[in-house]
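We both want to read discrete structure tokens more fluently, so let's practise on a single case. Would you write everything just below, so we can both look at the same thing?
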Amino acid sequence: MYRFYIIICLSLLSCLASFADERPTKRERDSWMQEMLDYKVDYIAKDLGLNEEEKAKFAGVYTSMEKEMRTVQKETQKLEKDVRKKGDKATKLEMEKAAEAQFELRGKENQIELKYFPKLKAVLAPAQLLKLKESERKFMRHVMNQHSKSKKKK
């Protein structure tokens, strides 16, 4: 799920970059990713029916979890990118390690989610906790629909 989220985010980022004369700076990308995360937290909090106090508690935990996931995803992407840059000069071991990282990514994401489950459980009611994954999927559909609408306007 999160890999799909990253693909969408990167696709949107590349679309934004195509409109600029230069590629966005790391600072601009980081700012954009933070805006997307804030937007996601707001969307999910609204969908879960959180009040302002609950939203603040949820946002702290959820943002920490997402940032930790993003770190793991970046590490995997870096391995892939390094191997792709080398092309034919990459060793079989380097290719295997990059492929292994790809296959392990979802497991690492799951471990992070399980690590944060007790923290989320402390700030969300059982019904909200149960609805969280559904809200994440709804957010992804919402982002994809918005992206699709913006493409049609061009």
In short: The longest helix spans residues 52-86. The two ends are 28 Å apart (CA to CA). Residues 10 and 95 are 23 Å apart (CA to CA). The chain is about 90% helix and 0% strand.
